[in-house]
Design brief:
The protein is an alpha+beta fold. It contains 11 helices and 18 strands. It has 3 domains: about 150 residues; about 120 residues, no CATH class; about 100 residues, no CATH class.
Length: about 475
């Protein structure tokens, strides 16, 4: 499951979702010049979510050559009210900030980044030319992510199967009559997706991203969900069963695009809440599928998920249970705990046979079972989880691996040394599947300090050692 602002459904085999939860400098936008150059090939469309955010007043540098948009004719400047409407328009369409420069022109850039997308005359015609330019950039980014990562995206008006509806009497979900509706991604979202894909290799290829305007689960809010392309969708080119990530398009504009941008988001440090962080978590669930979390490659009794769960301090009864969401987490004293409800904030103390225990460790009715919070569980766990989102082994692993990959590796090393070693080994095993070791049995490729996959050189190892001190 992915972090969301509200969690409540039980963990399933084919769907994972996650709860959303910080240097003063603006973050550089990698590949901006290339992105702008490629934009010359694209065309124009637009889409608009409902969100209002005050952009900062600080002026960003006009860092890109050739990004100036000149308009001919219309020299009329905008009134204060019309400027505000246009400012909201650019934000709603793509997460682009519109500001006035000292020389009386307009400047356009992504919030949290220092690079300028383009500048224009301070006229209605200038704004329209800038609007077309930004749309070209968006289309070029879609094409680039498709070429590099095989990524696919929903379009305006696309449907993705039927919404699931909860039946209280049966305590289960079933497909209703309403469609899951989607839209095309905005530039803000594409930058977050790109950052996540970059640090989620080697397995994150061919994933489809659905930007949902009507969610997978009726009357249930979540930020993101890893699943697969559904049956009954309007995109007939997408094959049911292929990997897919569903993003709540009503929430995505509330969050920083990348961890770099999150360092100074709305004048505060919001690292750990970015779209990059959210999508990286979902892509770890894809890695779990690739590594056979709940299935054995050769028919053995022990799965990758069972192995990882055991290493992280989770236990199961006898015979061992492959569904790791049914496992129990051990504390430093050997006591076992079960998360009471997916999305909740409490753990209950019990034996692996399900017998509730009170604070003295004695059998008791469930009403008197000892309870602790997610935060308490982090503090007493035998192997310290990376975050408080540790409801199940699958989620604890996904949270930790996200920290390992998307820029929090040094922090993970400092605070979760045992978990760090487990994740580093698991990550290398996934890399080895795509890039087999050499004749000397040493890895041919490793995950670099910046999260990307690189050749295993002395220089790359030296950079990693700087984090592990």
């Amino acid at each position: 499951m992915q972090k969301s602002n509200e969690k409540g459904k039980s963990e399933g085999e084919n769907t994972e979702s996650r709860l959303q939860k910080s240097d003063d400098k603006k973050a550089p936008l990698a590949g901006f010049a290339d992105m702008l150059a490629a934009a010359e090939m694209a065309t124009h469309t637009s889409s608009r979510p409902e969100i209002q955010v005050e952009p900062p007043t600080a002026k960003a540098p006009d860092a890109l050559k050739g990004a100036e948009v000149r308009s001919a004719g219309d020299a009329a400047s905008l009134s204060t009210g019309e400027f505000e409407k246009q400012r909201q328009r650019f934000w709603k369409e793509n997460g682009v900030e519109l500001t006035k420069t000292g020389d009386g022109r307009y400047e356009f850039r992504m919030h949290g980044y220092k690079e300028t997308l383009c500048t224009s005359d301070a006229t209605p015609q200038g704004l329209e030319e800038a609007h077309k330019r930004i749309e070209q950039i968006r289309q070029a980014k879609i094409a680039e992510l498709g070429k590099v990562y095989g990524a696919k995206f929903s379009v305006d008006g696309e449907t993705a199967g039927k919404q699931a509806v909860y039946d209280k009497k049966k305590n289960d979900w079933f497909y209703g009559a309403e469609d899951v509706t989607c839209r095309a991604p905005k530039l803000h979202e594409l930058l977050g997706i790109e950052a996540a894909l970059k640090v989620s290799q080697p397995s994150a290829h061919g994933v489809k991203f659905y930007l949902m305007t009507k969610q997978l689960y009726k009357n249930f809010t979540e930020m993101a969900d890893y699943s697969s392309v559904p049956h009954g969708g309007s995109d007939k080119r997408a094959k049911p069963g292929e990997p897919a990530i569903f993003l709540n398009a009503n929430l995505t504009m509330n969050y920083p695009s990348t961890e770099a941008a999150a360092k100074n988001w709305m004048n505060s440090d919001r690292r750990g809440t970015s779209l990059e962080d959210t999508i990286s978590h979902e892509l770890v669930h894809h890695s779990q599928k690739v590594m056979n979390w709940e299935t054995s490659e050769k028919g053995g009794a022990r799965t990758f998920g069972m192995e990882m769960s055991s290493l992280m301090g989770w236990v199961t009864g006898n015979p061992p249970e492959r569904r790791t969401n049914l496992w129990f987490l051990t504390d430093k004293d050997g006591n076992t705990w079960k998360h009471e409800h997916m999305g909740g904030n409490e753990w209950v103390r019990m034996k692996v046979n399900g017998q509730p225990l009170d604070e003295h460790g004695n059998p008791c009715p469930y009403a008197k079972v000892q309870r602790i919070t997610n935060g308490d569980m982090v503090e007493i766990a035998r192997v310290r989880p990376a975050t408080t989102y540790n409801d199940t082994p699958r989620e604890e692993f996904a949270e930790g691996m996200t920290r390992f990959r998307d820029g929090h590796r040094a922090e993970l090393w400092q605070n979760n040394r045992v978990l760090y070693g487990i994740l580093k080994d698991a990550d290398q095993r996934e890399i080895n599947k795509a890039h087999p070791p050499g004749k000397d049995k040493k890895p041919s490729h490793i995950r670099a300090a910046d999260g990307t996959i690189v050749a295993n050189t002395a220089a790359a190892q030296a950079e990693i050692k700087k984090l592990e001190i």
